[in-house]
Amino acid sequence: MSSQRYFSTRSSAEPHLTFEQAIIQGLAPDGGLYIPTAIPSILEGALEKWSNLSFAELAYEIMSLYISTDEIPSQDLKSLCKKSYSTFRAADVTPITTLQKDSGLYLLELFHGPTYAFKDVALQFVGNLFEYFLQRKNAGKAEDAADRDTITVVGATSGDTGSAAIYGLRNKKDVSVFILYPTGRVSPIQEAQMTTVLDKNVHTISLKGTFDDCQDIVKSIFGDVEFNSKYHVGAVNSINWARILAQITYYYHSYFQLSKNLGSTDFKARFVVPTGNFGDILAGFYAKRMGLPVDGLVIATNANDILDRFVKSGSYSKSETAGAAPVVHATLSPAMDILVSSNFERFLWYLARENLASTNEEAGSILASWMSDLKTKGTFSVPEVVLEAAKREFTSERISDEETAATIKSVYQKITPKYILDPHSAVGVAASLRRIEEDSKAGVQDVKYVSLSTAHPAKFSDAVEDALGQEEGFSFESDVLPQEFKDFSTKEKKNLFVDAADIEKVKAVIIEELAKEKL
Length: 519
Ligand SMILES: *Cc1c(COP(=O)(O)O)cnc(C)c1O
What we know:
alpha/beta; Rossmann fold; 6-stranded mixed beta sheet; 5-stranded parallel beta sheet; 21 helices; 14% strand; binds pyridoxal-5'-phosphate
């Protein structure tokens, strides 16, 4: 059906890649991100036809528009989807909850996967995809053959993303995963989520240093040509196209759930998304372009507000004030503490292509120059016509830590049965509530807000305890903590320690562990 190929946002001169090449490479050699040659439109009647599909079936329908059957035959893609979403605790995979029926506020719960965070939706699929591609390459080779294709995934985490990658890749054949994290700087729960995974192919490295040290080491490992060619280093970071693709499904799925819930399709669906690297909400943009009736996509940022500033000014700047040094603020929603939003480049490409360029090549060179300015000057500005186009797709709200905490509290107090938000989801709900109030003043009607809930509150105990500790009858232990997390303290753990931010030491550990895996 589909004959999709992929090319880089920074040039289209290179030959168009297959889906597999785009996924395995992750980042294009010119520094750009891979995008599909065309955004497919859903067929006439598809919305109705799809509305009763299960999550996995729906994922298959959507993904098959982006992956050529020459690459992954339908039956194989179907089983990949089925397998990927069978690990979720909720029957609906990503269920929708009514927060306030009167004001039309709904929560899309994306945290029912193995690590209790939204990244599972994509990484469960990516892990199976990696394994699928490798098994195909290795077909017919002996189990212990020296020429088997393998991938060594190396990543750094400040806490939240490492476990989703680990659970996506655990026990996958011919894949090894190494996750670096700064010693003593991830929460005990986050550390336990990673170190209690005992599979032979999973390795966590506690590194004496900061998160930046971990990231720098990972970057250097990627830049190490010799190491790379020997160990086939791979990444599963948020710019990987497969992650965006997998996230498109829940926009459709939640729209169908909401329509059924309301018994009508006569409403304006607005999605509000707690945003960091712009991967989650970008999937909403693709969903809309494909034909989902989306009335609005609202970016909700914390104090790290580069996107909010862009939408309001047309200037994409690392610093909040011209000339000042850029800073990442540590907020209550750490998974959104970013300086620049890596996936925003994909949306910028569409803006350039549709408003300034007449060919893909031209759009690629505009993008390359914007990104080069961002790198050298820390900023670039887009023309008015581009900003206007951006505003037609996205609006934004910036939420302070005070508002985040107050929202966790007010939702807990006002909603029956009691609902406990994690701080990331609270950023989205705070933005939604702000919009609902504005709509009500302006007399806008029939709007339904779907606020994306990206993590289970148990993952961010400090923020939740701070917000709710004083509430009568509240107990983190019994109201929030899942049994699985309570069991961590008695579980066997496995992890490695490197006593300095030293790339050679980390490489030595990786080499040693890879050798042990083969025994
Ligand atoms: C990663 C993450 C986000 C941000 O998602 P992006 O795709 O980076 O915008 C929000 N909340 C949680 C809990 C996350 O882990």
